[in-house]
Amino acid sequence: MKPDRTEMLKLLRFLDLTEEREWDCDDFLAHVAGFVERARAGLPVPPEAQPLLHHLDVCPECLEEYLELCRVLRDEA
Amino acid sequence: MPGTKPNEPARSNDRWLAALRGGAESSDAVRELERFLGGMITRVVRGRLDADARADLVQESLVRVIESLDSFRGDSAFTTWATAIATRVAFTEMRRRHARTHRPGDFEAIQREVEAMACPTTPAPDARLSRTHLLEVLEHLVATRLTERQRVAIVAELRGLPTIEIADQMGTNQNALYKLVHDARKKLRTALLERGFTANAIHEIVTEARP
Predict the structure, then answer these.
(1) Could you say which of A26, A37, A68 has the minimum Cβ distance to residue B2?
(2) ipTM of the complex
(3) Mutation test of the interface with chain A: which of B189, B190, B204, choosing the one with the most A Cβ atoms within 10 A?
(4) What is the tens place of the pLDDT at every residue in B153-181?
């Protein structure tokens, strides 16, 4: 069974988001703690954090971990 | 940065780093970090794993944190960074267990399917660059421009298999898999642009197709 139309559209969405240089999951992990703390402090997203936001768009698993990290830190506060 | 909370270890980042790198407080710091990670793993796992599995995750997180000290950027509390690592360790294990028990055999089925995937005929040029035409071209490019490993990884991701399961089955790790898929996406995007689909046209078609 080849990919169906819905799957091809999903792939097209990822191609639309694709950039020449992207952060991978390890880059994301190295930067996410600082990003979460800035967000919790209400500070604006600095330009150097844009690749992290982009990674959240294309990696559902890092998004899941990011949301969990936010939840755990919020519950700790 | 947020201050230390009542149930959080009271060490500065510098003291954590110095102690965990073998300074005077080394064994105290390791024990303190182990206790802290134990609490965090319990909160992240939320009853989804038993005590033995949680204890293993604490040890794995501890090792990962200590091995990664040089990559700590110092732009957060040390404990926030350690929690991010523990979250990654815990989710990786939970995804692995979920994949083993819920959808065994899916990856092998996708591999067989990709091996059997016939190359579609080259779509005839279409001046309208419609969505249907774009999807036909994309299907052709997936079949002709990607390596078999890239095709398997892309199709498995489109089918919703967890990245860790795909990586394990392909004998690689999550990060290498991300690079493999990123290279595949770049290859497909470049090929679409070469075929006359502009970035704007692709974006418009994706936006129109959103539910």
Answers:
(1) A37
(2) 0.93
(3) B189
(4) 999 999 989 899 999 999 999 999 999 99
Copy the structure tokens of residue B60: 């794995």
B44 touches chain A (CB under 8 A): yes
Answer yes or no: do A26 and B81 touch at CB < 8 A. no
Burial per residue of B25-57, b for 16 or more beta-carbon CB atoms within 10 angstroms, e otherwise: eeeebeebbeebbbbbbbbbbeeebeeebbeeb
CA distances B188 to A65, A71, B114, B124, Å, are: 28, 36, 17, 18
pLDDT digits (tens, 9 = 90+) for B110-123: 888 888 877 777 77
Counting every residue written for chain A, the total comes to 77
Query: Which is it for the CA torsion B110, B115, B121, B124, positive or negative?
Result: positive
